[in-house]
Amino acid sequence: MKNSKTVLIDRHPGRSAQTIGLANALGTDPELIHEPSVGVVGTKGDSQCYLGVAEKVEAIHEALKGRIGREAGKLPFRLVQPEFTIATSDGVRNGTPEMRYSLIGREVTNDALCEHLEATGLAGTIAVVACDKPPVGTLAALLEHNQPAIIMSDGPIHPGKDPETGEALDIVSAYQVAGNPDAEFRHRISCNACPGMGSCGGMFTYNTMQTFIGVVGMQPLHMVAPASDDPRRLNEFPAELVQILSEMMKNDLKPRDIVVRDSLRNAMIVAMAIGGSTNVTLHAPEIARAAGFADFWKEVITPEEFNHLAEHVVPVLTDARPYGKYSMVDIDGVGGVQVIVRELLEAGLLNGDVLTCTGETLAEQVKRLETKKVDGTVIYPVAKPYKPTGGLRVLGGNLSPDFSAILKLAGVEGGLDDNKFVGSARVFEGEPGLLKALDETPDVFKNNDIVIVRYAGPSGAPGMPEMLDPTSRITTLCREKNIVIALMTDARFSGGSVGLVIGHVGPEAAIGGPIALIEDGDEIVADLTTNELICPALEDPATLKARTAKWEKEVADNGGIHPNCGAADTRLLHRARHTAVPAVRGGGLHPNREVWVREPREATRSGFVPKNKYRPDSVKAF
Q1: Rg for the chain, CA atoms, rounded
Q2: HEC profile of 204-249
Q3: Which residue has the higher pLDDT, 415 or 483?
Q4: Higher per-residue pLDDT: 460 or 499
Q5: Residue 1's pLDDT band (cuts 50, 70, 90)
Q6: What is the CA 12 to chain-centroid distance, rounded?
Q7: What are 247's strand-pairing partners?
Q8: Beta partners for 39?
Q9: What confidence tier does 608 reach under pLDDT thresholds 50, 70, 90?
Q10: If you write DSSP's letter for every residue of 287-338 in order, what string do you get?
């Protein structure tokens, strides 16, 4: 008598033929082809960030294959061959037109993995990720698919070293010497800034987001900080990941059980405490959307809560590049990101009861790892922090009515007198004009200028490129001349950008946001007491009306698109031009500009409220 598997194969031989062939080719049991599928996914791209991913994927695949079978103690699943998505290299492409594809790459990763996870029907997934946009796209796809899954970052690069001075270097070091007149010096720094493989080593966007993914519960905490070439990533972590995935599948623990309101709040608080990248305010809304929250800034945390926590409750604990001295490898050397989490838990700033991928709560995972206390040099205690206030601030005001503008306060090196900057606008219609000025006529920039770069947002660029190249040059110019030059844009910044830089200003210029109405010489005020970004000229109704009418005529005369917008000359750029949502909603590509949410969650304002026990009177009701 035929068994049920044989009957199923007999009835659908066409569907079964390739899966039988694949099972034979992979060396697994053909009798398992109709069992739930498990597999590994990874990311590839033209960058050192991705060089180590393939070998980790292969190591995990082999560990998974070794556990597959029908025998006792084995995993009775169908094994799927590894799949890879593609990505842009931010480090190589900054300052070029190709940088428009960077944030779009997050969306491409989401789409590609959605196709793989859903069409393959994966019931369990291990993802190896690198750089900063692909991990977010990967997590979004895993949340949409909502089957047991776990993430491991490939790991950061080691710092470079200047062979003449011994100074520690990284990719930001190389961008910051662009304006140096000594060609030999520029060449020396570029040749030594990025040794080996791995993603950016400072507390830039990559490490901000890997820490975020660990704290939100989708990556084991001890796997975040080790370098890409750390032997544990090949010799220990693969078997651990397979075991964790098997337990998740056994217990039906899914991404949406892990990524909940309080875990997202935890992750954002840790991003503040590490002086993390401004990009986290683009990526967190997209992760929240995929987890079922339609509006991150209403359902998870409000701008007012965010700023109150950053200003009064959450200090910066890490002396990390680009605003400090140390790299992620140094953080691993003193115990890893779990040390930061332990310190914040003990200070009452995190909810330790949320679930993580290991099946433990966040607090239980920290305890099992026998997490060290802070060392006081690389990672500081909450009671005596590296900086007294959190690293990020969101701004409203008449230039940012979306309340989307973001400032990395941890990276500000000067210009905030009594918490306020007042400057004179110097307008550039896109990044290329600014780079040309910095290359050819840097002396035109004066103290208290505020450079305005517009038509570079999600729709305008299109693609919302980051601006590590110009911000690095402006930082160097300010240091050399002992002046302050601010920069404000509807585009975004690398986590490596420092200085008084304000991004994500929305609505963006391409859709008629107030940033489009600024003129050269306008006074611009950034007030961190009121958390507002103001152009006084636009407070005059007559001026506002006249400038708006002028802008509308320019759009009408150009067929409905402002002439200063970038060319949308490929299908992807055209898709971004017409479907990108505002920065405040994550800058993603969604049909009809509506944020699509699968199985939306009921909005709630209940939940954990962090309270810094060292400043107990500072917390107000949210």
Answers
A1: 25
A2: CHHHHHHHHHHHCCCCCHHHCCCCCCCCHHHHCHHHHHHHHHHHHH
A3: 483
A4: 460
A5: very low
A6: 44
A7: none
A8: 80, 125
A9: confident
A10: HHHHHT-S-HHHHT--HHHHHHIIIII--B-B-BTTTSSB-HHHHHHTT-HH
The answer on pLDDT for 420 being more than 80 is yes
Phi, psi of 75, deg, nearest 5: -105, 115
pLDDT at 616: 54
- The encoded tokens of residue 2 equal 């035929």
Q: Which residues contact 68 (CB under 8 A, 6 or more apart)?
A: 28, 29, 32, 38, 74, 75, 76, 77, 79
Which has the closest alpha carbon to 310: 224, 204, 391, 226? 391
Which tokens sit at 589? Answer: 């590509």
E-strand stretches of 455-575: 485-489, 501-503, 523-527, 532-534
How many C-beta atoms surround the C-beta of residue 184 within 10 A?
8
Is the separation of the CB atoms in 151 and 66 below 8 Å? no
pLDDT tens-digit map of 401-411: 999 999 988 77
Distance CA(395)–CA(524), nearest Å, equals 13
10 — pLDDT class (breaks 50, 70, 90)? low
Q: State the pLDDT confidence band at 39, using cuts at 50, 70 and 90.
A: very high
261-273 vs 205-215: helix crossing angle, rounded to 10: 140
Give the Å distances, CA to CA, from 156 to 200, 307, 327, 400, 440: 6, 29, 9, 34, 35
The helix (run of H) or strand (run of E) holding residue 45 is: strand 37-45
Return the percentage of the chain with pLDDT > 70, whole number.
95
- Kindly list the catalytic residues: 494
Nearest-angstrom CA–CA distance, 500 and 414:
7
Q: What is the mean pLDDT of residues 153-163?
A: 95
pLDDT digit string, tens, across residues 537-570: 999 999 999 999 999 999 999 999 999 999 999 9
Number of Cβ atoms within 10 Å of the Cβ of 331? 27
**Which residue carries 């796809």 as its tokens?**
141
Query: What's the token pair of residue 578?
Result: 């017409």
3-class secondary structure, 284: helix
Query: Are the C-beta atoms of 490 and 402 separated by less than 8 Å?
Result: no
Instruction: List, in sequence order, every residue forming a beta bridge with 168; answer none if it has no partner.
Output: 161
Asked if 392 and 281 touch (Cβ cutoff 8 Å), the reply is yes
Q: Which long-range contacts (CB under 8 A, 24 or more apart) does 438-441 make?
A: 438/179, 438/470, 438/473, 438/474, 438/477
Q: At 584, is the secondary structure helix, strand, or coil?
A: helix
Q: Domains in the chain, start-ordered, CATH in brackets? A: 400-593 (3.50.30.80)
pLDDT tens column, 62-78: 999 999 999 988 999 99
* Number of other residues whose CB lies within 10 A of the CB of residue 35: 17
d(CA 229, CA 52): 8
In this model, does residue 497 exceed pLDDT 90? no
